[in-house]
Amino acid sequence: MGQPPVTRVLDGVGGGLLGGRYRLEGRLSAGVADVHRATDLRLQRPVAVHILPPGTNPEDARRIHQDAWTLANLDHPGLVDVHDFAVENHHAYLVTQLVEGPTLDDVLTRERLPLDEITRIGADVADVLAYVHEQGVVHGDLQPSNLVTDRDGRIRVANVGVSGLVSGPLRPAHGTAYLSPEQVRGAHVGPPADVYALGLVLLEAATGRREYPGEGHDAAAARLTNPPAVPRNLSDPLRHALVAMTDIDPARRPTARQVNDILAGGFTEDEQPEPEQRGRTWVWVLALLTLLAVLAAIVLLNSGSRQQPTAPTTPPTTAENTDDGGNNAPALPAVPTFQAPQLPELPKIPDIPSMPNLPDLPNIPTVPDSVSNDAQSLWQQFTDWLSKQF
User: Fold this and answer.
1) pLDDT, tens digit, for every residue of 119-154?
2) Could you give all domains of the chain from N- to C-terminal order, each with its CATH number?
3) Could you give the CA distance from residue 300 to residue 304 in angstroms, rounded to a whole number?
4) Which of 116, 108, 67 lies closest to 263 in space, CA to CA?
5) Spatial distance between the Cα atoms of 161 and 170, rounded to a whole number of angstroms
6) What's the CA gap between 79 and 136, in Å, rounded?
7) How do strand 82-88 and strand 91-97 relate by DSSP bridges?
8) What is the pLDDT of residues 293-335, one digit of tens each?
9) Are 117 and 123 in contact (CB under 8 A)?
10) Which long-range contacts (CB under 8 A, 24 or more apart) does 75-79 make?
11) Do residues 202 and 185 make contact, with C-beta atoms less than 8 angstroms apart?
12) Where are the alpha helices (DSSP H) in the chain?
């Protein structure tokens, strides 16, 4: 795709017409840029015009024109489309699609949202952020006023990348409530800053109050040492996500894609429950393993006591009960001339007794079906529970 068309700013931003084409009709919001509702006279359609602060020099103009070209080529159903961009007389402005509908800021002002709706909004916005981060773009100014509801009730993310068009440190001009700790320090700002800001937005929606209210350095610096207080009565996915998203250290925060995974359907493979939850988990694992071991021992003891092997009752055959009563030889007759002493009777070698018959081996006891079914059911419940925990 080619470069987006460049229009002209005539008579400065103070006039009611930009580039001979866009008629300003009232300011919608203020932030990094002032956002105005306008009408595109050439195409006869409503648009939003984002007017950046003055002071753009030629070097900045070339840089932000390239950035605007990148924004114009983003394509996601959760984004507000970019139509046009221009720099003239040290002013720059971006023309985008006008999404008719209340902002999340308007919604939170008049009502509290249910937790399942907050979780859905968080998953949708995280999906948009994951896409723009993959394209090398950082929102930099995520707050409720930049989340707009379209006619279908879907949240659309506005002002993506607009903060990157502004020269100097990335510090939103309107409010400090959603700044990340690294923005407060003036350090490098990357995708983790958007994840942190989204965490504060969702936390505000859940509690009905801003975690870091007020303006100025002191209000902004509070988040450098005090992490947000996340209520324990939130659903597990939402609470787990908020604790991780608002970590002071950007390196420990999940990516936007991981946040989407958590809020849309549970933990990913690289994510684990919090340390407190892991401790409770191992207690249950050990308890269940002990229960299984006791159950197995009961089954073995019961089956072993049902049938004991009996000793053989048939006595082995011996020479005494098989002989015919003895076979003693008669004494030798006397010799007239010599009386020989009578020789003692030689003992008869008894027959070698036959080997006794080996007793039949006892039948292997059969475990009753009820015990087997109970053990299998308990084991299945245990494995299902483990798969959910890990």
Assistant:
1) 999 999 999 999 999 999 999 889 998 899 988 888
2) 1-98 (3.30.200.20), 99-271 (1.10.510.10), 273-302+367-390 (no CATH)
3) 6
4) 116
5) 11
6) 15
7) antiparallel
8) 766 666 666 655 555 555 455 555 544 444 444 455 555 555 5
9) no
10) 76/128, 76/131, 76/132, 77/154, 78/124, 78/125, 78/127, 78/128, 78/131, 78/154, 78/155, 78/156, 78/157, 79/128, 79/131, 79/132, 79/156, 79/157, 79/160
11) no
12) 58-72, 104-110, 115-134, 181-185, 191-207, 216-221, 236-245, 256-265, 275-305, 369-389
Report which residue type is found at 387: S
> Which tokens sit at 259?
């946040």
- What is the token pair recorded at 258? 């991981």
Strand partners, 88: 91
**Residue 5 · residue 21 · CB < 8 Å:** no
Q: Residue written as tokens 């030798």? A: 332
What is the full DSSP assignment across 108-127? HHH-PPPHHHHHHHHHHHHH
- For 225, the token pair is 């040492």
The structure's pTM equals 0.63
